[in-house]
Design a protein that fits this description.
CATH topology: Archease, Possible Chaperone, Chain: A, domain 1
Order of helices and strands: EEHEHEEEEE
Number of domains: 1
CATH class: Alpha Beta
Shape: globular
Strand content: 35-45%
Number of helices: 2
CATH superfamily: Archease domain
Largest sheet: 5 strands, antiparallel
CATH architecture: 3-Layer(bab) Sandwich
Length: 141
């Protein structure tokens, strides 16, 4: 049973494997975004001073997950935004709408724990099971 488990890291040579969980698809996508953010920095010190709305599309659940996680990663790598929290407002197999809160990177306040190069399709899965929703994905570091 999933209960309060949001995500866990799995062993994968030279990369990070993540398994995310949620009772609903919304919660699954929120927890997957949190896992990446928490891998990048200590999310506990983020204040979420800024907010932004995001809309993502995909060809199926797996493609949508990769596009979502790539957007979260782009916000950090391309824009210097450290995501504190994602609140998914709407999600279907082909579209996701969410609001995020974030801090702009400040090297005096934020420690970067890991640099993530990319979200991959390798061993990607998104599925519903008896406990809720599950996603497994690999991050290139």
């Amino acid at each position: 049973m999933i209960n309060s488990l949001q995500y866990r890291f799995t062993d994968h040579t030279a990369d990070f494997g993540i398994q995310a969980f949620g009772k609903t698809p919304e919660q699954l996508f929120e927890n997957a975004a949190f896992a990446i953010s928490d891998l990048i920095t200590d999310t506990a010190i983020l204040q979420g001073m800024h907010s932004k709305s995001i809309s993502i599309t995909g060809d199926d659940w797996e493609d949508l997950m990769v596009n979502w996680l790539r957007e979260i990663l782009y916000l950090w790598n391309g824009m210097g935004m450290l995501v504190k929290q994602a609140s998914v407002k709407e999600v279907t197999e082909f579209r996701l709408k969410a609001d995020i809160t974030y801090d702009l990177y400040d090297r005096d306040r934020h420690e970067i724990k890991n640099e993530i190069k990319a979200v991959t399709y390798h061993q990607l899965e998104v599925k519903q099971n008896q406990d809720g929703w599950f996603a497994g994905f690999i991050l290139d570091v």
